[in-house]
């Protein structure tokens, strides 16, 4: 029985998603991509598109876990608010599917994937490509797949390194 993990990298203009299946030490890429959201589209419609795509992914693949990056503080208040709304949509999609949500800090994520907490986006992308033996076209997709991989790695360790979100 394999574990299907859906990682989601929230963004108001581009939300990445990455599905990874794991069975023991074996990992494989199932699906990934980026939900591109035009700036001309009203924010409420962008949120609706994210929600609809996540619902479709859950229906198609039936993951056992949702994984997102922990909240961080941004310098721009408006960006922080919009990002919080996107995260709310992600949590809603997980909650309606009755799926547990796990969060990892950027430091834990980078250490799990690259082995260094200050890794760059490019280093993360290259390591995810190597771990899953595929070519990735953007950082949003790479970050989402990295979240799925991070969760798999931490599920195998006895101590809880993730924060589980209560819905």
Task: Please characterize this protein's 3D structure.
The protein is α/β, with parallel strands linked by helices. It has one domain: Nucleotidyltransferase, domain 5. It has five helices and six strands, in the order βββαβαβαααβ. The protein has helices at 43-61, 77-96, 106-113, 121-132, 139-155; strands at 3-9, 14-23, 26-36, 65-69, 101-104, 163-165. Strands 3-2-1-4-5-6 form a six-stranded mixed β-sheet, with helices on both faces. A hairpin with a 2-residue loop joins strand 2 and strand 3. It is globular, with a radius of gyration of 15 Å. The two termini are 26 Å apart. The mean pLDDT is 90.
Provide key terms for this protein:
6-stranded mixed sheet, 46% helix, globular
Secondary-structure element order, N to C: EEEHEHEHHHE
Mean of residue pLDDT values: 90
Q: Characterize the overall form.
A: globular
Number of domains: 1
Instruction: Report how far apart the termini are.
Output: 26 Å
Q: Using the coordinates shown, work out and report the CATH topology.
A: Nucleotidyltransferase, domain 5
Trace the largest sheet across and list its strands: 3-2-1-4-5-6
The level 1 CATH classification is: Alpha Beta
Beta-strand segment tally: 6
